[in-house]
Amino acid sequence: MRELDGVERATLSFREGFNCAQAVLSAYGSEFGLNHELALKVAAAFGGGMGRQGGTCGAVTGALMAIGLRSGMARVDEQAKEKTYHLVREFTEAFKTRNGSIICKELLGLDISTVDGRKKATEEKLFTTLCPKLVRDAAEIIGQMLR
């Protein structure tokens, strides 16, 4: 049996019930020394646009955490900081090109921070149709960037 790639791992993780940030970070975190369980815990608060507030898409924040694991600084290092911020801009531009935004409310076209918004998102099946696409897009982009 072949090993799943990062995109497949992220998509499967999301379909299993983990949030979008958890799905993306856990698919790539192990490449940089972050174990699977810890990746899931670290990213747990970022789903739904940071705690279901509709801010930056969790798939995006999961990918940005992976960028930090790869090139973030652990001591003061302006060069590493600039490289990381450059990669963040590169990622967000690629994601925006595919999806028009990195903001959850804008991507979904409604506000999931409200009961009515979550209900409508569920009725419109956005969590099972659009969100998996966003996870896949983030995982594809970050997977290409990390190679």
Q: Would you give an account of this structure?
A:
The protein is mostly helical and 147 residues long. The chain has one domain (6-146). Helix content is 67%, strand content 0%. The chain is built from 9 helices and no strands. The longest helix is centred in the middle third of the chain and has 22 residues, at 78-99. It starts with 5 loop residues before the first helix and ends with a helix.
Instruction: Outline the biggest β-sheet.
Output: none
The helix/strand class is mainly alpha
Radius of gyration, taken over Cα atoms and rounded to an integer in Å: 15 Å
Terminal CA distance reads 23 Å
Note the beta-strand portion: under 5%
What's the topology here?
Layout: H1 6-15, H2 20-28, H3 36-43, H4 47-50, H5 58-71, H6 78-99, H7 104-108, H8 115-123, H9 130-146
Helix pairs in contact: 1-2, 1-9, 2-3, 2-5, 2-9, 5-6, 5-9, 6-9
